[in-house]
Every structure is written in C-alpha cells, then in structure tokens.
Amino acid sequence: MNGLGALLRRDLSLAYRQRAELMQPLLFFILVITLFPLGVGPEPNTLKMIGPGVIWVAAILSSLLGLERLFRDDFQDGSLEQLILSGVPLAAAALVKVFVHWLTSILPLIIISPLLALFLHLTEPMYWALVFTLLIGTPILSLIGAIAVGLTVGLNRGGVLLALLLLPVFIPLLIFATSAVESASMQLQYSGQLAIIGAMFLFSLALAPFAIAYALRVSQT
Amino acid sequence: MNGLGALLRRDLSLAYRQRAELMQPLLFFILVITLFPLGVGPEPNTLKMIGPGVIWVAAILSSLLGLERLFRDDFQDGSLEQLILSGVPLAAAALVKVFVHWLTSILPLIIISPLLALFLHLTEPMYWALVFTLLIGTPILSLIGAIAVGLTVGLNRGGVLLALLLLPVFIPLLIFATSAVESASMQLQYSGQLAIIGAMFLFSLALAPFAIAYALRVSQT
Amino acid sequence: MAVLSTQNLSVIKRDRLLFDQVNLSVDSGSLLYVKGPNGAGKTSLLRVLTGLVEPESGIVFYQDKKIQKCGEDYATNLVYFGHKLGVSGSLSAVENLQYWCDSHQVKVDTNTIYQTLEKLNLVGLEDIPVASLSAGQQRRTALARLWLKADAKLWILDEPFTALDVQGINVLSDKLIDYLSKGGAVIITSHQLLELDYPTQELTLEYRI
Amino acid sequence: MAVLSTQNLSVIKRDRLLFDQVNLSVDSGSLLYVKGPNGAGKTSLLRVLTGLVEPESGIVFYQDKKIQKCGEDYATNLVYFGHKLGVSGSLSAVENLQYWCDSHQVKVDTNTIYQTLEKLNLVGLEDIPVASLSAGQQRRTALARLWLKADAKLWILDEPFTALDVQGINVLSDKLIDYLSKGGAVIITSHQLLELDYPTQELTLEYRI
Amino acid sequence: MWKWLHPYAKTEKTYWLCQTLLPWFSVLGLVALITGAIWALAFSPADYQQGDSYRIFHIHVPSAILSKSLYMGMAIAAFVGLVWQVKTAFMSMMAIAAVGAVVTFVSLVTGSAWGKPMWGTWWEWDARMTSQLVLLFLFFGVMSLYKSFEDKQQASKAAGVMAIVGIINLPIIHYSVEWWNTLHQGATLMKLDKPSMPLEMLLPFFVSLVGWSSACGAIVLLRIQNEILRREMKRPWVIALAQQNVTQSNTATK
Ligand code: HEM
Ligand SMILES: Nc1ncnc2c1ncn2[C@@H]1O[C@H](COP(=O)(O)OP(=O)(O)OP(=O)(O)O)[C@@H](O)[C@H]1O
Ligand SMILES: Nc1ncnc2c1ncn2[C@@H]1O[C@H](COP(=O)(O)OP(=O)(O)OP(=O)(O)O)[C@@H](O)[C@H]1O
Ligand SMILES: [Mg+2]
Ligand SMILES: [Mg+2]
Q: Which of A11, B187, D118, E127 is the most buried (most CB within 10 A)?
C-alpha cells in the first residue's frame, strides 16, 4: 500500500512539475471547441445540434493526445524497470498511473465543459447528460488506451495499435453518449444509456489493469 | 547542398522506419471524420454545411498531433547538436525537416480527403476548393508550429506554446478556407481567398526557417 | 544456502546465442565479477538474474526458490542498478530517492537522504531537477540507493563506476567492501579494472558471433 | 598559429560561476587533457569550445579567428563527441554514419564505413538498428566518426572511453596517437586515467560550490 | 542605430534614463486620465442610439488600441534584444508583457460588459473577440515561456522569438471585422478618411488615450527599473544607490 501511495504522490508531483504539458489536452479541447464555431458558422441552432458530438469527439481526441506520454518517460529513463522490481503489484501500479493521468488531464476537461457547453448553446439538461456521460465514459478511454500504450512503449510505435484498439470502444461509447444527450434535450430519461456506459466502465476497470501490467512486463524483454 | 540531400534522405528513411507512428495522424483524421456523422446525426444537409469546417478542424488537429515529435528525438539522442555542428545552414536544414514532416504526415490526409468528403456529402467543386486550401494552408501550420516545437524542445513541454502560437494562424486560415469552400459550393470564384492563404504561406516560408533555426540554437544552451 | 544461483541459463538475442549453460552461485558475503568484452551479454545476463527478462532456458533461484515464485520477497532483498538510471529528470534528487525508497518498502526519513547525498558530494544540488546535473552527478544520485537500501541481501550492479571521478570510485568501492563484509552479496560488471581489496569470484563471458 | 585558443572564458550555470578566466591554446599535434571532478564544468567548457553554447564572457578563436565568424570553416575541421551519441536508434550503424558523413561534408563510400566498423569489432552488426546494440557497441558506432573524418584539424572528445572494453580503449588510444602524430589537435576529458604515450598538456578545473 | 543604442545596453545608463522619464510620464498620465474621465463621464453628450452605455467606449477603445501598441512595443524590444544582444531590451520586453496582459484583459472585460447591453450576450465567437483573446494568451505565453527556463538568458531569447512570431496576430485583430461580418463594429476611428464620429465625443477619447498611454509608459519604466535593480543586486552602483536611499530616509525621519 505504501508503495502505491508513493507512486501516486510521485506521479502527481511530476504532473505538477510538467503542468505546462498537462495544459495541453485542456488547451486542445478549448481549441477544438473554439475553432468549430469559427469553421462551421456561429448559428446557434447548428451549434446546439452538433454540440454534444463536438464535445465528445474533442474529449476523445484530447485524451489520446496525452496518453502516449503515460509510460514513455518512465520507460526511457528506467523508472519503469525499477517499478517492476520494486515488489509493488504491477497491475495496481498501472491502475494508479492511469488514474493520475485521468485526474490530471481529463478531469479538467470535464470541469470546464460547462463553459464550453454555454458557448455551443447547449441547454441545461443536455449539459448534465454530457457531464455524466463524460465522467463515466472517459475512464474507459484511459484504461483501454493504456493497454495499447503499454504494448508499444518499448517499440516506440504506438500509433496504429492505439487507434485500432480504441476504435471499437469509441464507437459504441460515442453512440450511447450522444444518444443520452439527445434524450436529455428532449427531456427524456437517459439512465439506460448511462447504465450501458457504466457496465463498459466496470468491465474495463476489472480487466484492463492486468492487461496493462502484462504489456509493461513484455516491454522489458 | 549535399548535406541537405543527406538530411532529406535520412529523415525520409527514419519516417519509413517509424511508419506505424506516422499512421497516427492519418488514423486520427479518419476517426474524427467518421465519428462526426455518428455524433451529429447523419442528415446530409447538416453534414454538407458543417463538412468543410469539420475537415479543416480535423486536419489542423491531426497536424498538431505529430508535430511535437519533429525535433524531440533528434534533441534527445544528440543528432541535433551534431547537425548544428555540421556546417549545413541550419535554416535550410530546418526547412527540410519541416518538409519531410509535412510530406509524411499531412500529405496523406489531403490524399484521402476525397473519400472523406464523400462521407460528408460535399459536392465536387467544394471538394476541389477544400483540397486547394488544404494544400496551400497546411504547410503554414507546419512551419509556424515548428517554431514553437523548436522553442520548447529542451523543456520537453511543447504543448501549450504550440497551441498558443498556432491559434492566431488558425483563425484567419480557417475563416478563409471555409469561406473559399462556401464560395465553391455556390459556384463562385474563390481565387481571392486562395491568394490570401498563398500570401500567408509565402510569408511564413520566407521567415519561419530562420526563427526555427534560432530556436534550435537556443535549445542547446 | 546461496543467495542467488542459476541452473543452465541460456539467452538468445536476435537469433544469436549469447551464452548457454551458465551456472553460477553467489553466497552471502561474496562478490561475483562478470567480465567480458562489449556485446558479450553481461547486461543481458544481469537482467535475467533480476527477473526482468525471461531466459531462453534455465532457471534462476533466489535462496533455492525460483525467483518467479518468490514474489515480493526477492524484490525487497534486491537492488538493481542498470545502464538506465531510473531517476526522472524533472524531479530533484531528494524527491527521486524518497519515491524510490517508498516504493521499494525502504523506510527512511528525509534527513538520511540528505546525509547520503552529502556523502556523495552532492551538497547544494539536492533540490534542483536531476536533469540539470552533470553526467557524473546524475549517476551519483542513482547510486545513493545503495546507501539507503544497504540491508538488501543482493546488489546487482551494471557498470556502476561509469562517469564517476576518482573520488566517486573510491567512495563506491569502500561502500562495496563495507557491504560485502557485512554479509551482502554483489554481482557486478565493470570495464574499469575492479581493484577491490576483497576476494573476487569471476565469470567471463565471451563475445560469440 | 594555434588551432584553437580562448581568451578569458567564463561560464555561469544556475548563478554559479563554473570557471572564469580560462585561457587555453591548442596547437596542431598537441593533446589537451581537461581534468576535474564530477560537475566541475568540463562538459560545459567543451560545449563552449565547439560553439554550441555562448560563454558568459570571453572569446573562442579558431586559427586566430572568432569561431562565430568562421562559418563552415570551423565546422568542416571539427569533430565533437559528447555525452549524447548523436546516432538515432532506429537506423543502422551504416545508415547513421553515412548520413553523418554526408551532412559533415566528408566524402566516404559505403565500403570504407564497413571497414571502419570492422576495425571497431562491429562485424555483423552493421545493418541492425543501433538501439538493439549493447551500450559499448553503440558508443563504438559513434566513435567510428573519428576514423571517417581523420582529416579534421581538431577533435573535441567528452569521455570517449566510457563503456568501452579494454580492447576498445586500446584501439581508440592508438587512433588518438596516430591522429596526433599526423598533426591533429585533440581536446579530451576522461575520468579513466589517460595513459597515452604522448606529451600531454593538462588543464584542471575545480569544483566550486 | 547601434551608436545610439549602445550606451543603453548598460543597465546603469538605462536606469537613469528611466529615472528622468518617469516623472513626465506619471504627471501627464495622471492629468490626462483624470481630465479624460471627467470629460467623458460628465460633459460629453450621450449617444443617440446607445444612451449612456456607450461611455464604456472611453475605456474599451483606448485599452484595445493600447493593447496592440504594447504588444508591438514588446516585439520591437525583443527584436532589438535578439539582433543586437541588448540585455536591457529583454528586460523591457518582460516589463511590457505584464502591463500588456493587464490592458488586454481590461479591453476584454469592458468589451464584454458593453456587449451585454448592446448585443445581448457576454461572449460570441466573433473573430475580433477571439483574436483579442488570443492576444491575451500570447502575452501569457511570453511570460510563461520566460518563466519555464532556468537560464534567464536562454529564457529571454526564447520568449523574444515567441513575441516576434506573435505579431501576426495584430493585423488579424484589426482586419478581422472586415473578413468576418459579425457583431463587432468596424473601424470608425482608425480610418484613413474622416472619422465618423462627432468631435465632442472624439476629443475626450483622445485625452483618455493619451492618459492610458502615459500611465502604462510610467508603469513600464518602473518595472524596468525594478528588474534592473533585482538582477544587479550585487553590483557596486546598486549598493551605493541603496545606501544613499537609506541615509536619505534616515535623515528624513530625524
Ligand atoms: C469582448 C468583447 C470585445 C472585444 C474583445 C473587443 C475588442 C476590440 C479591439 C481589439 C478593438 C481595437 C481594434 C483596432 O484597434 O483595430 C476594439 C475597438 C472597438 N470596439 Fe470593441 N471589443 C469588444 C466588444 C465591443 C462592443 C460590445 C462594442 C460596442 C458595440 C465595441 C465597440 C468598439 C469600437 C467602437 C471600437 C473602435 C473601432 C475602431 O475605430 O477601430 N467593442 N474592440
Ligand atoms: N534489445 C535487443 N535486441 C536485440 N539484440 C540485442 C538487444 N540488446 C542487446 N542485444 C544484443 O545482445 C548482445 C549482448 O548485449 P548486452 O547489452 O548484454 O552486452 P554487454 O555485455 O552488456 O555489453 P556492454 O559491455 O557493451 O554493455 C549484443 O551483441 C547486442 O547486439
Ligand atoms: N542544463 C543545466 N542547467 C543548469 N545547470 C547545469 C546544467 N548542466 C550542467 N549544470 C551544472 O553545471 C555544472 C557543470 O556541469 P558539467 O556537465 O559541465 O560537468 P562535468 O565536469 O562535465 O561533470 P561530469 O564529470 O560529471 O560529466 C554541474 O554542477 C551542473 O550542476
Ligand atoms: Mg552492458
Ligand atoms: Mg561531463
């Protein structure tokens, strides 16, 4: 436990040290959402219609952006091999690292999304649906993405694999999420969609850490 | 000259070695554009209206994705200091590197964009306008982005700065490009917009290499 | 009971057999010096011994138990120091060492860390990012682990003397002898001649093409 | 006319004066050995001499001309070998060296490169990515530049012996003596005792806190 | 150019130059700001369309125009610093950066406050607003880039390059209204032909513009002096200056 706590603290303070880099997904997110009205035209109805899709796509892209860095530095400077040799259960350690990543680079997106939802003229129920789906849905991206990143950290070529692994997860996620927001815009229930996303989340939470740990061990060979 | 040719060959073969990583912006681009109809709803008219904006925003974001890698590896393994000491004019070398980056990670996007334009129900004149604006416009992104990457290569935290420096370029670029496509959709001339984008391109082509070279020299201190 | 022993180890890299049938055994208080030219497979051997890499065939035993079966027991009794330092450049020396100790279940307080860094001639540099230290100073930072985890049963050190100046080499050599005489076991590689005033077991790997 | 000379060089890092008033002069055929403990500022000095870093004050002259004014002339007559190797891991040794030679205006054909690599004991490893070589083999790859650009007037070498085995050290030492006796100038740092059979000029930097 | 600049590459000379300029700027700034404010708020007529809310104009427009001039000033300082290796130019660059950020922020806030009664919205993705926001970010960017380097020499150079590259944003701010026909009003003052504004609105505006400029100038001068003192703390002339100040204040208290 002590070891995991130390890892948590260290990763958080590393994140703080490199906070400029951490801003990246956030700025990227803001960028997307600023550029869209400029590119698409500022018509409130159009914006409202495409708004949830834009925010979700932007969130997915931003989370991809930082993901590659998740194990790269640790692999290159040898911290990863020291972690593997430390006796801390590797799956748990992987989970901690993914958690820190989510906390520092995705949670901020969710926190500022009300502001952006305003810009895109979303209504309040739509906004709440958006936040709920983001809160449950984005950890899935981080968890599954981390498997791909772990598999390729030694090879230095994560790109394709990352996309291939993530695509089958993205599509249902996006469909359920936007359908939830749509239901909300029509004042309907959307707990069904939330439940499905929640199930996906629990499933990946249970299995992904072991896959990540295995991938990291393989990277050392 | 010989030195520049060697650099070109070497960067191309490095790109080929890491082709899996190169696929990343392309996949990303496809992802955005296929996800959009899913997220927004498949109504042809809406899609057609937002299409050019979406493609342009997607191209901008994808080009950001690979940019950070432009000088990072060379800095870390010391190839950059050897290049600076090689006697090859550094501004020209920077231009070659930016060119290879554009060629290998942005040109493919432009090449597949007809396919994607189909998904978004663009008409043929719109499509041509899109391709022309992309062809002239995206090098500007690479050139200006490379300055930011050069400035921060030693810091290992390019993100924020990249976005900051690029935003002022994005805005007019996006405005002119989408307005060109709009003109095309109404069968109007759009050479005016192209001319402005072309002027921006020539301007950045003339000045950016020196700024990049200077930034790279500063990174060695 | 040997601290570490192996049975018929062999390792293949890129279809090339680096070594096979390596049987070694290191007891408490003894020093094994792995020699061999560049590319002989010293690093590969050491990484197999730590368990980071699976050998092509053969078994590694920690106190007569397969290392895969030992779980945390082996981890808490091992220090591995490889070509890569395992310190992150944006954290300071103290932060790096504090984290390392915590994650390796070593109890130390910050004072001890400062004192250790003082022994290693890093006074005044404890709190700046490791990336802005000189090459030798970065390695000293990583080597401080040997002082902090001196109750481990086994140290596996891959070229620990690299980039150290004469004073650094002396400090480290003294530490090694001190550790060995207190019953520790050391497996070491070095291209610099190992001039320790201590009985040395040698294992020479050849460079096979 | 000295190949390289300096006038009142001083360098500051993190508000600490590493050294000041360094005046040195290296003639053709002479060897300057820069000594000093870890963190004394040897690497910093060498990087200033190459022109990569601007000193806080002072001037570096190449053949009595400021190096900033020399342009390509200095570049074509210099080989710098630093802590970072300057080879990219995904390219093979031959590719790396071919590129380096082309960009440094050195004319060689592939055969020469293969022969050089053979001298450095890298037979059979010429065409695999450098990243999968051992630590010492990677350094040998980078050192091959000294063979390929032996007509440069000046070599600046920062710890070239690191990670080399005994045979490697001998090969490199022989090359250095050969180069010096043909009129080359060398500035070198090393923590391993420099045992060259050649008159050596020494410059010792102190570690100032 | 170099002949003229050369003496001011020395920090001490620059310090005394600032010292002589400072009172002029401060007095002019203070007087003009106060006159301008009273004139604009109390005497100048209300707009026939906008009523009294148009009076924000007297803060919004000077600050908006000044923000661009400050950016330009910063970039010029950066250019001088990069080309002629003048340390004091970099100090001026950083001195201007913070002031510029504040002024830009003021223009954004006042614009936004004006937008609410005029357009019924605080914020819109209008090209001018967006590019003005980008200007604020650019100021922040220069400052944060400067902060993230340990070595201040390196930091100045990097921040300088960034400041110069950012100039592209200035024409964009100006022309954005023409390119993109949305909410923000086109050029009314900065036109080549006759300004389309009554003189009794224009005059107080110019007075406040002068006031804003001089006040910012004064603050920049002060900041340059501060930076010089901080960097050269250990130099003899600074120590002498400090001792002189101490003895003066001592005699004053006695
Ligand atoms: C957040 C919102 C706003 C921002 C960021 C903003 C920004 C600017 C900027 C940057 C300028 C200087 C342009 C130049 O020098 O070329 C400017 C000028 C001006 N603004 Fe705004 N503005 C905002 C809202 C408003 C509103 C609501 C009004 C009034 C309806 C307004 C009226 C003006 C006028 C009259 C000028 C002078 C135009 C000229 O002569 O160039 N602005 N604004
Ligand atoms: N990741 C890898 N992939 C393929 N081959 C490798 C890899 N790492 C090492 N090798 C090969 O294995 C051999 C042994 O490498 P190793 O690093 O064990 O040598 P070493 O004895 O430690 O050498 P040195 O003294 O240079 O550190 C080398 O010849 C190298 O070519
Ligand atoms: N990038 C940097 N930023 C700040 N300080 C640095 C930086 N690089 C080096 N230093 C400081 O400068 C001093 C000299 O470093 P340098 O690398 O020149 O030493 P060195 O003599 O080469 O040492 P070594 O023998 O360990 O290689 C060190 O004390 C270090 O703390
Ligand atoms: Mg090795
Ligand atoms: Mg050094």
A: E127
Contact B28, D130 (CB under 8 A): no
List the structure tokens of B94: 């920077």
SS3 state at C157: strand
Ligand 3 within 6 A of D48 CB? no
E11-43+54-189+197-253 has which CATH code?
Answer: 1.20.120
Question: Which residues are near ligand 2 (CB < 6 Å)?
Answer: C 13-14, 18, 36, 38-44; D 125, 132-137, 163
Averaged pLDDT for residues E188-212: 70
Percent of chain D beyond pLDDT 90? 75
Which pairs count as long-range contacts for B10-16, CB under 8 Å and 24+ apart, including other chains? Answer: B10/D91, B10/D95, B10/D99, B10/D103, B11/B96, B11/B97, B11/B100, B12/B100, B12/B103, B12/B104, B13/D91, B13/D95, B14/D88, B14/D90, B14/D91, B15/B100, B15/B104
**Atom 25 of ligand 2 has which residue's CA nearest to it?**
C38
In this prediction, residues D50-69 reach a mean pLDDT of 91
Nearest to C173 by CA among C135, C130, C143: C143
d(CA A108, CA A111): 5
Q: Which residues does residue D34 pair with via DSSP β-bridges, in sequence order?
A: D189, D203
Q: Which among C91, C28, C79, C73 has a CA at the least distance from the CA of C49?
A: C79
The alpha-carbon gap from E80 to the nearest alpha carbon of chain B, in Å, equals 15
- For residues E138 and E166, the answer to whether their CB atoms sit within 8 Å is yes
User: What is the identity of the amino acid at B3?
Assistant: G
Residue whose pair of structure tokens reads 């100045």 in the numeric block: E156
Q: For D141-157, write each residue's pLDDT tens digit.
A: 999 999 999 899 999 99
The number of the ligand nearest the C-alpha atom of D126 reads 2
Chains that touch C (3 or more CB pairs under 8 A): A, D
CA of C133 to the centre of ligand 5 (A): 9
Q: Strand C185-189 relative to strand C200-204: parallel, antiparallel, unpaired?
A: unpaired
Place of tokens 């290392």: C67
- The answer to whether the CB atoms of B28 and A171 lie below 8 A apart is no
A205 in contact with chain C, both atoms CB, cutoff 8 A: no
State the DSSP code for A85. T
Judged by its nearest atom, the ligand closest to the C-alpha of residue E177 is 1
ipTM of the assembly?
0.85
Q: Indicate the CATH number of D4-204 among 3.50.50.60, 3.40.50.300, 3.60.150.10, 3.90.1300.10.
A: 3.40.50.300
Contact assignment for E127 to A38 by CB distance below 8 Å? yes
Three-state SS for E179-205 is: HCCCCCCCCCCCCCCCCCCCHHHHHHH
DSSP string, chain D: --SEEEEEEEEEETTEEEEEEE--EE-TT-EEEEE--TTSSHHHHHHHHHTSS--SEEEEEETTEEHHHHTHHHHHTEEEE-SS----TTSBHHHHHHHHHHHTT----HHHHHHHHHHTT-TT-TTSBGGGS-HHHHHHHHHHHHHHTTT-SEEEEESTTTT--HHHHHHHHHHHHHHHHTT-EEEEE-SS----SS-EEEEE-----
Grade residue E2 by pLDDT with cuts at 50, 70 and 90: low
Please state at what angle helix E152-165 crosses helix E57-84, rounded to 10 degrees: 120
Cβ of residue D16 closer than 8 Å to a chain E Cβ: no
D136 touches chain C (CB under 8 A): yes
Would you say A173 and A140 are in contact if contact means Cβ atoms under 8 Å apart?
yes
Partner E contacted by D13 (CB < 8 A): yes
Residue type present at position B48: K
Find, among A62, A142, A68, A157, the residue nearest to A108 by Cα: A62
Would you kindly state where each structural domain of chain E is located, as residue ranges?
11-43+54-189+197-253
Report the percent of chain B where pLDDT is more than 90.
32
Contacts of C166 in chain D (CB under 8 A): 37, 191
